Predict the structure of Delta-1-pyrroline-5-carboxylate synthase.
Amino acid sequence: MQPPVKNGFNVFLGNSTEWRLSNGPAYLNSPTAYIEPESVTLDPSRAFLKDVKRLIVKVGTAVVTRSDGRLALGRLGALCEQLKELNSRGYEVILVTSGAVGLGRQRLRYRRLANSSFSDLQKPQGEFDGKACAAVGQSSLMALYDTMFSQLDVTSSQLLVNDGFFRDAGFRKQLSDTVHSLLNLRVIPIFNENDAVSTRKAPYEDSSGIFWDNDSLAGLLALELKADLLVLLSDVEGLYSGPPSDPNSKLIDTYVKEKHQKEITFGDKSRLGRGGMTAKVNAAVCAAYAGTPVIITSGYATDNIIRVLQGDRIGTVFHKDAHLWAHIKQVSAREMAISARDCSRRLQSLNSEERRKILLAVADALENNLSLIMEENGVDIADAELAGLEKSLISRLALKPEKIAGLVKSVRMLADMKEPIGQILKRIELADKLTLERISCPLGVVLVIFESRPDALVQIAALAVRSGNGLLLKGGKEAKRSNAALHKVITSAIPEKVGDKLIGLVTSREEIPDLLKLDDVIDLVVPRGSNKLVSQIKESTKIPVLGHSDGICHVYVDKAANIDMAKQIVKDAKIDYPAACNAMETLLVHKDLSETGGLNQLVAELTKEGVELYGGPRASGLLNITKTSSFHKEYSSPACTVEIVDDVSAAIDHIHQYGSSHTECIVTEDPEVAETFLRRVDSAAVFHNASTRFCDGARFGLGAEVGISTSRIHARGPVGVEGLLTSKWILRGSGQVVDGDRGVTYTHKELPIIA
């Protein structure tokens, strides 16, 4: 008998549980597959997704049902919503679903319970026939899909098939024509094996035939219907290197037949269905090597199908060309962190002048590669504009020549700073000829997660080199090309004796959870972004976190302010760079200025500059402006909140209630009021008669900054080189021993610090 499918894909193997590629050996013959950790590339394994138009999604029994056998309505609803979204985007979507037998068994059990007397229930209850369960469950399952899709204004259709049908060439042609017609009508075809009339003796035991479960049916349909992608939804994230419950197991990103074929071991099959991971791997291997790429991923997440098509690195990819990607090594999160630490120790072993020359080389490299950096940044900006991102975000993303020149200047300033490593901070004579010193030293390895501001990458990298730290960087995806270009330029200037892995660039958000587990390798995490991001990071790691919170900065104009000075400060604080975290977001004005005309002058100055004003309860009515939805709001754009307060104490209370402990300013000519404000305001930076925009590492003379910390431990405000240092104790003796403190006479005398 000729195999029913083309492309050398033979799926008819009699009573065997194996699938066989006509150009390769059979090798899968047990339930759950475990293989060794992956070491192949990531990015090429998603490139094919841009060409996907027709996809098949297979959802298994373990996804469709809960652990108690009842339907998982939430997961089914999320599945239908995703398929509706894809359908509306123009994708041709085909669904292969399991669950009929389980649903039918549940309904029959309920019916038997409802119709049984108490004495009947005391008798042993036999198990239901699987085919009867399938017959009852199939109509219920389709009714549920029909109801859900109808609520989403989508039409679905049912197609029940048996493996014997595929022996008939006429059937296969008619099937293809019918599905083609349905897809042209924007109808979602829903396939399931018709277990009720299957010729197999027992659906869960007999694996004979052209296909024997819905995984193999999905693989067969992917080839028959010429799908561009097959997505197999499982109850785990993909194919793991060991049992998914084992914390040492790693998710396999890309399956390479030549590497993994002989490394497979097996465990249990699915708790509910017929196959589990083995069935999925069988189907995935056969479909992929016959021409249809496959991704196995979790069906428990509400958006994984959408994320797969967006190119997110989730699940496990099966592709016939995967072996061509294998020469590019995938570096694990741990390997990246360990490499950064090793390089940092080599960097620390250099003398001060050698480290200085590295920074000067980085500055030169940035200047010499200006055109490359600008070109890549231009692509990021174009993509951001096409995606409709806010102007404030695009402003942060842009790298103009003058901004790069400023970065180069900052790097050179850092190079010329006093050597920060090995500085003696304290000297104590513990006893005669026993001297204790505390000296500065690097933290070790720092992970910085920052927003879509590529200039931040340069500042942070330069600080890492100056402070002798290893560095891992994860920037916003909107700046991925700019970040990649800057990273390449900077690491090219690091000498081989240190190693370019001193600074690692994390390219996928999926790597972040693995990095956050490495509290034995990474010493500090610096998340730059919203309070939500900082909170999520803190909840996800044991590593110390230096939180960079929202930038809700206030300017309070006192009744004793010089109004002309106040106008200039308020304008600069808002207009100089509205997207900056140190830009003014709330203007607080003493109530007396609303009567003397000072408030109107300040508002007029902002309005003249095109600032959109929102008012608090008092200011909105008086100025006839829109009432703000919240005082705790960071606009990051030419907009701000205005409110009237009774006095300096009311201003301080407002700042403490609604601020983010970032930067605050008072404008006043009354020194007593100014000192009250400076002493009592509990923020990282508090200014008198100066714009909030001065809160910046470069302007503070720090050379650059990792970010502006609103934490109260270790570092606060602009975090420069000092914020990336810790200390260690050096004890210099002459043979002393403790011996119960009997042989030592302690002096504990402070000694002068020798420069």
Remarks:
- The chain has 26 helices and 29 strands.
